[in-house]
Specification:
The chain is α/β, with parallel strands linked by helices and about 325 residues long. The chain folds into 2 domains: about 210 residues, Spore Coat Polysaccharide Biosynthesis Protein SpsA, Chain A (Alpha-Beta Complex), CATH 3.90.550; about 110 residues. The chain has 11 helices and 12 strands. Strands 1, 2, 3, 4, 5, 6, 7, 8, 9 and 10 form a 10-stranded mixed beta sheet that branches. Helix 5 packs parallel to helix 9 and helix 8 runs antiparallel to helix 9. The radius of gyration is 21 Å and the shape is globular.
């Protein structure tokens, strides 16, 4: 049963005891009071489950669901399955939100008769939060233009957490299990369910860049799984909105270049670097002949793309050479 006027907020939780209390306080203290707060404990081994239960004792709006560790996609799927709100939002458990985020998102959604509303976000580095914007200027876009901006990535991006959705956007849509970059695989599908979206410049979400992650992050082999999502995106958008393919190809190019740069920066073992580069090269070669001569690309970027296609990438900056091998 769907509850009109209720927002279901889905929070996947996994080993975030250092940050969880601030996150949950920021949700519980929202100016929008009609909330259903779904905490999906995905097999945490630290004190996170106890923190969730303590908050649930104090706030009847909180529902705690414990499951074995299956990943963030599974946790979000559990949240969607159990949500009863007419509207759905997401908060990552190491981030936090400003007090009026969901009230503002709901207001602009209803006032503009939209299916998705989006707010600005700021980043937190240590104790410093940057770029909080108070201006509530908003932009409404029909479906085609909203998708165009999604792939352009200048106004908003694929992330789920700074958005509010009407429940019907999730009809017959689930997050892919066992993959990272699940936002990439799902966001465009949600936009295809929305007749109109509205975006506000006002900051509502604070994305935490965790210092320990910066120091310990290594290239995640799951990055290669993102190309499964790209295959789906390319197939779908080329059929539904072929006029948007320039934006799709451009985002695909930047995504691939970013992955190559991550390999150069984060993999010191030459054999492993070549192995991961080979996967990316294979995916780029698969679509290379379809990528038009994009005017937005500089000669330098075109050269980098050409090197990926020919499986031989030279980086003067990193003083490294990547060679694609058969996979």
């Amino acid at each position: 049963m769907i509850n009109t006027g209720l927002i279901s907020i889905i929070v996947p939780v996994y080993n975030v005891e250092m940050y969880l209390e601030k996150c949950l306080l920021s949700i519980c203290n929202q100016t929008k009071k009609e909330l259903e707060i779904l905490l999906i404990n995905d097999g945490s081994t630290d004190n996170s489950p106890s923190i969730c239960e303590e908050f649930a004792k104090k706030d009847p709006r909180i529902v705690v669901i414990h499951q074995s560790s299956q990943g963030v996609s599974a946790a979000r799927n559990t949240g969607i399955k159990n949500a009863t709100g007419e509207l759905v939002g997401f908060v990552d458990s190491d981030d936090w939100i400003l007090p009026d985020m969901f009230e503002n998102l709901e207001n602009i959604l209803e006032e503009n008769n939209c299916d998705i509303s989006i707010c600005g976000y700021a980043r937190q580095f240590g104790d410093e939060v940057t770029d909080i914007r108070e201006n509530n200027h908003f932009l409404t876009l029909p479906q085609e233009e909203s998708l165009r901006e999604l792939f352009r990535g200048k106004i908003y991006r694929f992330a789920l957490w700074n958005k509010l959705y009407r429940r019907h956007c999730f009809d017959n849509i689930t997050f892919p299990l066992g993959r990272i970059h699940e936002d990439l695989a799902v966001s465009y599908k949600l936009f295809l369910k929305a007749n109109r979206i509205v975006n506000t410049s006002k900051t509502g979400y604070i994305y935490r860049t965790r210092e320990e992650s910066i120091l310990t992050t290594k290239f995640h082999k799951g990055r290669i799984d993102s190309y499964k999502a790209w295959d789906e995106i390319i197939s779908t958008i080329s059929k539904v909105y072929p006029q948007l393919m320039d934006e799709v190809w451009l985002r695909f190019v930047w995504w691939s270049l970013d992955n190559v740069q991550t390999i150069l920066n984060q993999i010191s073992d030459k054999e492993e670097a070549n192995e991961q580069f080979a996967w990316i090269s294979r995916e780029v070669r698969k679509h290379f002949h379809k990528i038009p001569k994009l005017k937005q690309l500089s000669w330098k970027v075109k050269l980098q793309l050409l090197m990926i296609n020919y499986q031989y990438y030279i980086s003067a900056k990193n003083k490294k050479i990547l060679k694609g091998q058969p996979t």
